[in-house]
Each structure stands twice: as C-alpha cells, then as structure tokens.
Design goal:
The complex is a heterodimer of chains A (about 750) and B (about 60). With about 750 residues, chain A is α+β, with helices and mostly antiparallel strands. In chain A, about 50% of the residues lie in helices and about 20% in strands. Chain B is about 55% helix and about 0% strand. The chains are: A alpha+beta (about 750), B mainly alpha (about 60).
Chain lengths: ~750, ~60
C-alpha cells in the first residue's frame, strides 16, 4: 500500500555519499553490499518477484531475500548501478525498500504495528457486532421473524462486515494481487478468494432475500487471520530486536571538539575520521576511535555480553556502542558508519537473517505447491457438488479454501529458524550462517584449538631470559615492536607487557601463521616466535622449548616464558559436549608438554601437538572422510583458514575482533559453555521444525477432505485455519524457553534479592 | 420493538466513537511501548537514561 508514496525522488537522498556511507559496505573491486528492509514481503511469491526485479537491474551480482525477517542482501557493482536505482527497482515491483539502519527499522516497524493494531481492532469490533446481529437472525429463524426485521438485521450485518472486509482484509487482497502478478500464488490467494467469495455471495443473498447470509463468518475469518498475523508480526519484531538493538546502540549525535576547543553538537552521520569528539560520563561512544585521555573505564556489555567494565589506556581503541563508565574523555575518530566494529557485528547478524537456509527454501517450495493443489481441489469440489447438489457447491468450495492452511506450511521453517537465531543471539551466540543450525545439531565431533580457545586469550610473561648483554627492558621493547604486528595471543602478551607506548617502527613486516613474525627494526632484521623459526633452523643452544624467542642473525636476544590459564568454564563445556555424545579432541600448534597438560586437566584423550595449520586441515579432512560431522572451535582470527575446513566453524571472539572473525558461529564474551547450549538449542529447533511440518501436513490432510465433503460450516473452517497457523507460531516460540526457564530459576535461587532486570 | 430503530444506530455511533478513540491512541504511540513508561519515574536523572530506555516510542521521535 505504500508503494505509491515511494517515488524515485524519495530515494535520491541515498545518493549523497555522507548518508550512503552508513548503508553501503565496500567489498572491494567495485563490489558493494547493502542490506535492505523490504515492506510487504509475505511469502515465496513476493521473494521471487523482488528477486526478478533486482536481478533484471544491470550491475546486480547477487540477491538474497529472507521473507521471515524481510531483509534483502544485495551485492552490486558500483560502476553500473547505484543505491537509489536499486530502491527504485524494488518500488516499481510494488514494495517499499529501505536501507537497513536503525531509523528505517523504527519507521517501518512503527508503521507496520500501528496499521496492524488498527486493522485488528476494526475486525474485532466488526466481528463482535456481526455475531450479535447473526444471533438475532438465528433465533429469529426459530421465532418466525418477519421479513422486514430480518432484512434490517441482514443489512446491519453488511454494514459492520464491510469495513472488516475492505479495510481490515486489505493486506490479503494486496498480497494476493502481488503474488498473482509474480505468477507464483502465495498463501494470500486462497484467503483473498475465500473472503471475497463469502462477502459477495452474502451480499447477493441479502439483495435477493435468499436463505442464508454469512457476514458474521467472513468477519470472524478476517479477525482470526489477523490475530494470527499479529502474533507472527510480534514474534518477528522480537526476533529482529537484536540486530536493531545493535544498530541502535550508536547515539544519534556526537559532541565534536572544534580546533578552538569549543564543543559543537553534530549528527552522528556528519562525523568523519580524524574528528575529535568528547564523550560524557555514562554516554555511548559514537564511533570507533583512539582514546586521547590517560585512561578510562568502558562497559562493552552489549558487544561482548561481558558486563564488567574494562580499562582502556591512552592510544587504545574504544568501540562505538560501548558505554563510558567514567569520564568525560576525548577521542579521535578512526572509523565511522558501516566501518565500525559495531556495524560489522550488526552486519553479521543481519546477513544471517537475510540469507535463506536450505531448509527454508525447501519449505517455501512445499508451500507454493500446496497452494496450487488447494486451488485445484477447490475447483474439483465446486464441480463435483454442482453435479450432485448445486445449492451446496458454493459453501463446500469456500470451506475448502478457508479451512486449508498453507500458512502453517509456509511459516513452519522460517519462524523456527528466526526464533532460534534470536534465542541464540540473546545467549551470546551469533549465528552467521543459518545453515549452521542444522549442521550443529547433527555434529559428531568437536576439535578445539588450545591457545586462546581452551585457555584464556591473555597470556602473561612469567620470565625473561636475555643474552648478549641486552637488558630486560631493551629486549622487551624490541620484541614488542614486532609483537604489535601480530594478533597471536603470545604476541599480544608481549606487546601488553611493554610499558612504553611509543616504539620503534617495524618495517618489512611478515607474519608467518603458526611460526612467528619477522620484521626490520632500526635496520636490524629480527624474528620473534617459535625457536626453530626465530633461529632460522640453526638451533645453537638448548633452550626451553616452550619459550618464545627473539633473535636476529647473530643469535638469540631473549627468551620469553609465557604462562597460560585454562578458561574457567573449559572443563564444564567439554563435559557437557561429551554428555551430548560428541567426541572431543584438541589440535594445537603448541608444544607436546603444554598440550598434554591441558588435555589431561580437561580429560580429553585425543590430542595432537605441534600442528601447523595444514596439519589441522588434513586432520579435519580425514575426520570428515570417515563420515564425522566436525565442529572446529578457534579464535577465528589466527586460525580462520583451519575453521574453514570444518562442517561448522565456531569462533570465540570479544570486542572489536567479533566483526573480523570468519566463522559460521561466533561465541561472544569468551564463554565456551555457550557451545553445548547452542547445540542443545539447535537440536530443539530441528525437532520443533519437524513437528511444525508434521502438524501442517496432518492438519491439512485431515480437514480438507471433510470440507470438500461439505461437513465443515464456514465459521468452524475459519477458526480451524487460524488456530492451525497460530499453533505453528506458538510452537516455534517454545524454542529456548525450557532452558531459559531453568536459567531464571537457578538465578532466582542464587541471587537474593532479585535485581530488576531492566 | 420500535426502540431498536433508535438503539441500534446509537450503538453503531458509540462503536464508531470507540474505534475513533482507539485510532487516535494508536497514532499517538499509546501502545508503542508498554513497559518503560512505568520505569521512568524511578530514574533519578532523565537526561542520562540508558540508551535502551530512551530509544522507543516518543523518545525515538524526539531524537530525530
């Protein structure tokens, strides 16, 4: 209905670079990615017609649309098309598209829920009145009501049913029209046919003074359907809450410091890298930036799920969306808009919601086939009855249309998946690829990386052993200059241990995964890493095998001994996974001694040390060849290529790294116990999804024949179809509920008094 | 029975009135947020309300 409002003019604003920057992601090589929110998508038919409209545009490389979350992900080439053109193409197909950002979401949602509430209340009032007038007519049949009074009540019924059909029922007609235009009948088609049929037939009967009118049935039908749609809408809005919460974390404006030192309040979209902004105590950091004050405490809870504030020092990065606990502080803006870590995370979640898992695609095809079958069956019913008893042909055909419920089919998969994604996200598990839910549920084997995965990502230096007259501080400075260039936990520990913030620049940096870093500092080539790498193969003297060595061409400069601690929940997580029937193993690049210690502590019998990335990949490939479905768990940054070789890649990531993690599933906040829980939810999701499909099939198989034989009165048919789609939605809402309830009970026992969660 | 001729149109007028009142309420965001308004009086300093308290309903409109 909003299609007409949306002219190309309205889209032109997105051509302005400062605004487009917030909605477009650069994929490199002239390829751009945009997430759109599309209004009015209901079913597979809509998806096809939008896909057709977009792929017809020049320069569109890929389109993915998920009707459940109504998100479209478009990859396009910058040279050939533009965002306003894409929005225009969607508008011409009859839908309203908005680039996905918090404001657009607010707009669309408010619009949608207001309209839905109004339609629902009109239908409720209308149905209530129509039932009362119908009651008079039914009683009147027994009382021998005179014809004038009877007609009076019939026309009253018409009066109240008309707004219900024409106003409240409009989404069904609009949806049916659109899906017919796309030549792919969706679930709105039988509904619209049934509503129009009952209404027109009752009107003709009323004019003719015929035997029966069904104004109350049609009102109730629309009312029940709208209740179902309303519940579905609320569920969808709740499921989308996480992305939107993320997108909304950034404040709408920022305090920019002018060169004169004055503060100017500007819109968040006007910020550019290099700006200096002031963040007040308790305020939200508006963009990713470098801290210019000495130190501060920030709460990154909404990014990492970890509620304890973390301390940041001068020169460190603050992430947009985190809350400043003490302040005010100044920061220099580094990244804005869709480049920020927060936008990256929102993007990850958004991408998961925009892609359609295989399961959902199969479900859509089934629903579409079902609609066609229902229409054929309605035709057959009408034909057969007009042969035997023409007076009943019309009611029987309508009953078939009304009672059959393609909605249950069409909704079975998307509501379950969307709900599962939302439940998992709330537990700190971000599912990037929805297919991972299916794969996780069927997994048989888990391979853990050790460093930074089973152990805490933060190592500490326990001992520095220097050679050739270097002092500890000197050696540390040199090592830190190299270590800054790597993200490996050991490198980060060394970089963090160096008290100096200004270090000599490392040039010609080369990081070797699994080995170490090589770079030139102050004209001297240095190597930091495993002993064999640092010494270039010349093992001159016996050293602690586990130590990280710093060496140049003349030999060892220093050896750093690092200690690592197991994550406190590693044992629990592994026990839980084994209880779920999974085989657990550890593959690490670390030394035999260290891996053995960790494996013994955790009770893992299958462990492999000194594994290079290629060895790990070969191990995963061998497992998969044996028919195992493998989950690989790592930190997602250092071991990204290894994770790519598993059926499900799980990354543990915190803070800014979340967005860079390449994996199917991201565990935020560094909680390993999220993994067995995520698997439990994945299994539950598949179970409920199958239940939903069986229910839809069973319901339709049992009621459609009855309706075709003329046993189902219109009112009962309306009730049956609405209840059956409600059952599907409510059943999907059960996902994660049981466990959530258990959590809440445990919490109530342990925490007294209970704090207000808000 | 003649009283019906008065009472039924009257009930329809009242119904229309109720519907109009409801439409007004929906359009003025009376149903947009059912939870946070109850918590607002408990907040000591409304200007520092956390982001999640001020981003829905009326507050969202103001911020724009």
């Amino acid at each position: 209905m909003s299609a007409g409002v949306c002219t190309d003019d309205a889209h032109r604003v997105w051509a302005r670079p400062e605004i487009a920057r917030h909605a477009i992601r650069d994929l490199g090589a002239g390829r751009r990615e945009t997430l759109l929110l599309i209004d009015g998508v209901r079913c597979a038919g809509c998806v096809r017609s939008i896909e057709r409209a977009l792929t017809a545009e020049p320069g569109v490389a890929d389109v993915q649309i998920n009707p459940a979350s109504r998100r479209a992900r478009i990859i396009w080439r910058d040279a050939e098309t533009s965002l306003p053109q894409l929005l225009g193409a969607v508008a011409r197909a009859g839908y309203r598209a908005l680039p996905l950002d918090a404001e657009a979401l607010d707009d669309v949602r408010r619009h949608e829920s207001r309209a839905a509430l109004k339609r629902l209340i009109v239908a409720a009032f209308g149905a209530m009145q129509a039932m009362m007038y119908a009651g008079v007519l039914y009683l009147g049949d027994a009382d021998a009501l005179d014809v004038v009074t009877r007609d009076f009540f019939r026309w009253l019924g018409f009066l109240v049913a008309t707004p219900v059909v024409l106003y409240s029922g409009r989404p069904f007609f609009a949806g049916a029209l659109r899906s017919l235009k796309a030549r792919r009948p969706g679930m709105d088609v039988p509904v619209a046919l049934a509503v129009a049929g009952i209404y027109v037939a009752s009107l003709i009967e009323a004019v003719r003074g015929g035997e029966h009118v069904y104004f109350e049935s049609v009102s109730m039908f629309v009312f029940f359907l709208l209740i179902g749609r309303y519940v579905e809408m609320c569920a969808r809005h709740r499921a989308g809450d996480l992305t939107d919460a993320l997108a909304r974390l950034t404040p709408p404006y920022a305090d920019r410091r002018l060169p004169s030192g004055e503060i100017e309040r500007v819109g968040i979209r006007e910020l550019v890298p290099g700006d200096r902004v002031r963040v007040a105590e308790g305020a939200v950091v508006p963009a990713d930036g470098v801290l210019l004050a000495e130190r501060c405490l920030v709460d990154e809870a909404l990014l990492s799920g970890e509620s304890a504030p973390v301390e940041r020092h001068r020169g460190e990065m603050l992430v947009a969306g985190s809350v400043l606990v003490d302040g005010p502080v100044d920061l220099r803006v580094e990244r804005v808009g869709s480049d920020t870590a927060l936008a990256g995370i929102a993007e990850l979640v958004g991408r998961a919601q925009a892609s359609r898992p295989r399961l959902a695609q199969a479900g859509e095809r089934a629903a579409s086939r079902f609609v066609i079958r229902v229409l054929v069956l309605t035709g057959i019913t009408a034909a057969a009855w007009s042969f035997f008893d023409p007076s009943r042909a019309f009611t029987a055909a309508l009953a078939v249309l009304v009672v059959s419920c393609p909605c249950a089919f069409a909704l079975a998969v998307p509501v379950a998946i969307t709900r599962a994604l939302a439940v998992l996200a709330r537990r700190g598990v971000l599912v990037v690829k929805p297919d991972a839910i299916e794969a996780l549920a069927g997994a048989t084997h888990v391979v853990f990386d050790k460093t930074g995965t089973l152990t805490e990502p933060d190592l500490t230096i326990t001992r520095i052993e220097t050679r050739r007259g270097f002092s500890d501080a000197e050696a540390l400075r040199l090592a830190a200059a190299l270590a800054r260039e790597s993200r490996h936990p050991a490198a980060r520990a060394i970089a963090a241990a160096c008290p100096d913030r200004v270090l000599d620049a490392a040039k010609e940096v080369e990081a070797k995964p699994g080995l170490g870093v090589r770079a030139t500092v102050g004209g001297r080539e240095l190597r930091l890493g495993r002993a064999d790498f640092a010494l270039g193969g010349k093992l001159a003297e016996p050293l602690d095998e586990d130590a990280v060595l710093l060496a140049d061409d003349a030999g060892v400069i220093a050896a750093f001994s690092l200690s690592e601690r197991l994550r406190p929940d590693a044992r629990d997580a592994i026990d839980a996974l084994e209880r779920q029937g999974l085989t657990v193993s550890i593959a690490s690049g670390d030394s035999v001694d260290k891996v053995r210690t960790v494996a013994t502590k955790l009770g893992v019998r299958d462990w492999h040390a000194r594994q290079m990335p290629a060895d790990k990949l070969a191990r995963l490939a061998a497992l998969r060849e044996r028919g195992e479905r493998v989950v690989a768990v790592g930190d997602g940054v250092n071991d990204a290529p290894v994770l790519g070789g598993a059926d499900v890649a799980v990354a543990l990531a915190e803070g800014a790294e979340l967005a860079q993690a390449t994996s199917d599933v991201v565990l935020t906040g560094g909680r390993l116990t999220h993994l067995p829980r995520a698997r439990a939810i994945a299994i539950e999701t598949l179970k409920i999804l199958k239940q939903n499909q069986r229910w839809a099939l069973g319901y339709n198989l049992s009621v459609v024949p009855l309706a075709a034989l003329g046993f189902v009165p219109p009112l009962l048919a309306a009730l049956g179809m609405s209840v059956s789609s409600l059952v599907v939605v409510l059943n999907a809402m059960r996902i994660g509920r049981r466990e959530g309830g258990a959590d809440a009970r445990a919490l109530r026992r342990s925490v007294v008094p209970v704090e207000d969660p808000a | 029975m003649n009283v019906l001729v008065v009472m039924i149109p009257l009930s329809l007028v009242l119904l229309a009135g109720a519907a109009a009142a409801f439409f007004w309420a929906v359009d003025h965001d009376q149903f947009a947020d059912m939870e946070t308004p109850a918590l607002v009086p408990l907040d000591d300093d409304p200007s520092t309300a956390p982001a999640h308290l001020s981003n829905s309903g009326n507050a969202g409109t103001v911020a724009r």
